[in-house]
Amino acid sequence: MDGDAFVGVREHMRRICDRIYIIDLGGEGHGTRREENVFAIQTPVAIFIGYRKQKSSMDTPAIIRYIRIKGTREEKLQKLETIYSSERLKWQPISNGWQDSFKPKIKNEFTLWPQITDLFPWQNNGVQCKRTWVIGPSEEVLVARWQALLASSNRSYAMRESGDRTIDLPQNDLLFPDVKLPAIKTLKNESHQSIIRYSHRSFDRQYLLADNRLISRPRPNLWQTHNENQIYFATLFSYPLEDGPAITVCPNIPDLDYFRGSAGAKVVMPLYRNVEATDPNILPGLYVAGFLMLRSRHYTEGRRKSDLPCRLSSSRQHRHD
Q1: For residue 26, what is the enclosing H or E element?
Q2: Do the Cβ atoms of 131 and 160 come closer than 8 Å?
Q3: According to the model, what pLDDT value does residue 306 have?
Q4: How many angstroms separate the CA atoms of 202 and 258, rounded?
C-alpha cells in the first residue's frame, strides 16, 4: 500500500476507480513490531474495495478512505463480522496524489523531519563475497588461505565456486580496473592480491582478500570512490529498528550485511561520490544552506561551528507503520 515499488499500481487504481475503501488488517510477522495475522502467513493483509461509475474519468483520482483494524486474529475477525455498512466505520481520508501512499499520513514532529535518503541521495549495497574464507581476522590468515587454494588439487572445490565466480573466469582488478587478472586455474605460485581492512559488521573490522576473482558482488562503484577521507553510513531500511543504534559509521568498505548481519539492501550511504573527496553525497541545497547557517552563526553569534552534524542527526528513516 505504501511501498516505492508499487507507485505505478497505486496510480493505475486511482485512474480506473472512482472510489476506494481500504480495510487494513495488518499482520506483520517479521521484524520487531509483530502482529497477529488473520491468515497463517507473515505478510500484512488488507481488504481492498474499489468501484467506478459507468461514465468515470481516468483523469480524476479516486476518492480513497482507509481504516485500520488492530487486535488479535479473533478480534479482527469479530470486528469484520459486525460491519454491515461502510457508513458505520470511522474512515480516514487519503491524499489524492497519483502515486501517494494508500495509508494516511501521520501528523507529528517526527514525520516533518527529512528522510535520511533525501539527505544522502546515493545509497548502495555493500560488498557481498558469497564465500566467507576471503574474510579473516588477520593478513596472515588470508595469506595462508590463498596459498592453500593454490596448493589444492581441486581448486574449484577449495574456492567454493558460484555462478559468477569460478576458477575459469578472469576478472579486472578492483583497485586498478585496467589490470586484467588471469583465471585462478592458470596460476602457479603467484602472490595474492591486496589485503585491506574491511568493515565486516558494525564494530567488527576484519581483513579482506580484495581479489575480484573471489568476490561475487564487489560493488565497483564503492571501490572507485573509496579514499582515505571516505566515510560510510549504514542503517536498516527493510525492517523497523529495535533497541540499539539507528545508524553506524565506518571508514572501510562495508559488507552487504554490515549494519546488523542480515537484511542488507542499499543501506550504505557514502559521504563522498568521488575518489578525490570533493563531491559530497549530500543534497546540494542542504550543503549550501548548512554552510551559510554555520558561517552566519560563527560571525554573528560566536557559536561553535559543529552544529551541522547535530542538524543532520535530526533526520528520519523511511516509516514502517
Answers
A1: strand 19-26
A2: yes
A3: 43
A4: 6
